[in-house]
Amino acid sequence: MEGTMRAMVLHAPGEPLREERLPIPRPGPEELLLRVRACAVCRTDLHVVDGELTHPKLPLVLGHEIVATVVGSGEGVTAFPPGTRVGVPWLGWSCGVCRFCVAGRENLCERARFTGYDLDGGYAEFALAHQRFCFPLPAGYSDVHAAPLMCAGLIGFRSLRLAGDAERLGLYGFGAAAHVLLQVARYQQRRVFAFTRPGDTEGQRFARELGAEWAGGSDALPPEPLDAAILFAPVGALVPTALRAVDRGGVVVCGGIHMSDIPTFPYALLWEERVVRSVANLTRADALDFLALAPGVPVRTEVQVFPLSAANEALSALRHGHVRGAAVLDVDARS
Question: What integer pLDDT is reported at residue 261 of this predicted model?
Fold first, then answer.
């Protein structure tokens, strides 16, 4: 396909994205050319813009929660004919042959490439994606409501798997991922305790509306000990806070790609077989399992929609905690 496309481009950390016209990319071997319909805005995008993730491709088109329609393909493509709607997540490619990939842990591949970081992403009218890392989407979701499933949903789902069979589950940071995961946890008959920024009564009300048994500030202890806690807020100081909240044998899962430094804490908080662990993006198996589960819950995403040209405004709203649910760029909308 010839011609140009609109894109929001990052040229250097700390700078706002620039709206530009770029050539429509040409698909290489096993790549799909996608007409982007919607792309959710993730806190990881803020970490890239702020320079906290330090090795992005520059200039860069951000965005890794993509909903798109296949419009072309490169040599060797065997899936997804033109017209198919697909989702594209953060993990954009893995080598397939290293010990991690062979063991089904491709999210740890040392040669992995990431959408909207190593590869241009979905803050544009068109994007490329490798056929192995595109996924068919449930039919019951509109484009803008499907977009948060591709990262907020997937990272939350993998975090929940790593939390084990915890009945009493704490969620620290009640944003896009937590609002999806709470619905899955309640479907699995877990009891959920939601932690927001101190004083965020609206966020706490939102959590209770979605089924949280208790909601309060992150500076408070829950009314009873937790079996597991998942941290979506990128605040290292919450690790010892969560350790204080979990019962003996409990697990604290850090769900973000970047987190501020974890302060020192007494060994007594970790003792009694408590565990602290991180989550590294997702595997394709996570994606397939979650996208099969979501319609049956059913997961309902709450979104705040922005046109593509307002990507900087969407990032700002996310930065300042002014988004209820998930921020999503509607690429077809005009400002």
Answer: 96
